[in-house]
Amino acid sequence: TLEERLRRSVLAEDEIVALADALGAILDRIHAAGWVLGDLKPQNVLLRRGRVSDPVLIDFETAVRVGQPYAP
User: What are residue 11's phi and psi, to 5 degrees?
Assistant: First the structure.
């Protein structure tokens, strides 16, 4: 997870940019599909092959449809 990676060391500037770009693209696709992700945090970001440029979001338990109220 991103959380585990951050425990080992600080991300380099190029890694931060790559991660932000990749997460932005993922969140854009989720929103375009009509959803809002409610729990974006480092432990919910898996890193394929340990690369920050290849994240996967997990835990959509708090995701809600756009325009719907959130009820935990």
Answer: -75, 145
